[in-house]
Amino acid sequence: SLPSEMLVKIFSYLDAVSLLSVGCVNKHFYQLANDNGIWLKIYSSCFQPKRTIWKMKSEQTETISLGCAALHDRKPGYWKKEYIFKQIAAVKTRVMRLVKPVDPYTGLPCKIKETMKASGLSWIIVLKDKNGKERVMEKANLSFKDTSLTILWYSTNWPCLDILSTLKLFGVMPLLPDQSRAPSKNGPRRRSLIAEYHLANLTESSVAVGADKLVQIFSLNPGLIVGLWKEKNEIAFVMASLHYHQLLERSTLGSATVQYALPPHKPVLDDIDPEYGLHNYDLHLDMHGGSCTYLCGTFKSLFCRKGDIANGYLKLTVVNLKDSTKHLPLIGTLGLSWETDVFKGNIKDCYVMDVTLLDETGKPFWCFSAPVYMELSSKASSLFDYMGHIYTTDYADSEGKVSVELVWLEETKEYFIVNLVLYISTKKVNNWYGTNY
C-alpha cells in the first residue's frame, strides 16, 4: 500500500543481492527493483569509470553522464543487467586465472578447490515427478581425488521412486559471489545443466553394479550411481563422479535447460604417420571407492603400432600379462563406500575408475570418471607367479574401452593388476589429428 516513490527510496538502501531478491516478491516489486537510478548508483560504486568513458560493448564506447541522460535514455533494468554482466565477467576472469596452472602429471588444473571457492560453485540434483513437481536436493558431501570429484547426496526425505520421472544434475553458482562469506542458498543463483537421467523403470533399464545387506546400486551413464534400499526399493543416496577435465565448463557455462556443448577439437599439424601409430601418450589412472584410494599412478610413453589397430580401435597396452615386473598391487579390498544420516556401508567388488589419457603434447585426450564393477572370470590363472581367482573389469563409451584383468592372492589378501589395455576409437583419433587410420 506504500506509494511507489517511497518503496523506491527504501529499495535504494539495499545491496545488489537483496535488491535482486526483493524483485522476486511480485511484479510490482520487480518493476520498482529495476529502477535505473538505484542500479546506476550500485554500478558506479563498484566499477569506477575511467574519466567519463565506460566500455559498454566490445564494438563501441560511449561517454556517460551520471545525470539524467544515463537514466532516462535507458530502458528499466538496463543498469541492473550491466552490473550483473560485469560481475559475471569479473568472476570468469578470476576463474580463468586460477585454472591456468596445470599439474604436469595429469595435465589438469591443480587449483580446483581454490577455483570453486572463488566462484562459489556447488552442485545440486533436481528430482522431477510424473506430475511435473520438482524437489531440489542440496545437502552433499564432496570428496576430492587427483583427477575427479565425488559428490554424495543423502536424505531421510526422498520422494517415492515410483512417481519420479527424471533426475537432473546441475552446477550452481551465486549470481553475485562474495568471497568474504559463504554463498547464500536463498540468494540469486545460476544453474548449469550437467546431465539429465531418466528414472522410470530404473531397476530394469539401468546396470546393477553391486549390493550389500542394505542397499543395491545402479549405474546411470555418465558417472551417476543411485543407491536403493533393498527392502523398500526407495532411494537411499545418489553419488556422482565428475572428472576435472571439463568439470568447470559443464558446471558453469551451460544454461538451466541446455547442457554445455564442448567446442570441437581443432586438429593440430603433426608429423604423426598412420603407419607409425600413436606415440608418447601418458595415462594417469585412479581407482577409488569414494573415501579410499586403491591405486593412483602415472604411466608414461604409451604407444600403438600399426599392427595394434583392428576393428575400429587403436590398442594401448599399459600392463602386459607376460611382463610380471609391471604388475600392480592394489591397496586394500575393492569396494564402494556409502553413507546416509543413519547407516553406512561398503559394497564389495565395485569402485570408481578415473582415466586421464594425455596425447604427446600433454593435452587431455580421453578422460572419464565412472563406476565399474569386477566379475569373476571362468578361466583359471595360467601365470606361474599367481595362483588365485581371476577378475575382470570392463568399461566402454563412444570414445574408447578399458579392459582390466586382476588376480586375487589369497595368501596376501590383495589384488594384482596383471593386464591393463586401453582401446581408443579410430574415429576419435581421426577427429583429433585430422588423419585417417
- End-to-end separation in angstroms reads 74 Å
Low-confidence stretches: 51-65
Share in β-strands? 35-45%
Oligomer state equals: single chain
Specify the overall morphology: globular
Task: Briefly note the structural class of the backbone.
Answer: alpha+beta
Instruction: State the domain count.
Output: 3
Task: Tell me the major beta sheet.
Answer: 7 strands, antiparallel
Mean pLDDT: 86
Radius of gyration over all CA atoms, rounded: 26 Å
Task: Give a written overview of the molecule.
This is FBX15 protein. The protein is of the alpha+beta class. It folds into 3 domains: 1-46 and 66-100, Monooxygenase; 108-176 and 187-251, no CATH class; 281-433, no CATH class. It contains 10 helices and 25 strands. It has helices at residues 4-11, 16-22, 27-32, 36-46, 68-72, 78-99, 112-119, 202-205, 247-252, 426-433, and strands spanning 53-57, 60-63, 122-129, 134-137, 140-144, 148-154, 164-174, 189-198, 207-211, 215-220, 224-229, 235-243, 281-288, 293-302, 309-310, 313-319, 328-329, 335-339, 344-348, 350-358, 364-373, 375-376, 390-396, 400-409, 414-425. Strands 15, 16, 17, 22, 23, 24 and 25 form a 7-stranded antiparallel beta sheet that branches. A hairpin with a 5-residue loop joins strand 11 (224-229) and strand 12 (235-243). It is globular and about 85 Å long. The termini are far apart. The model is unreliable at 51-65 (pLDDT under 50).
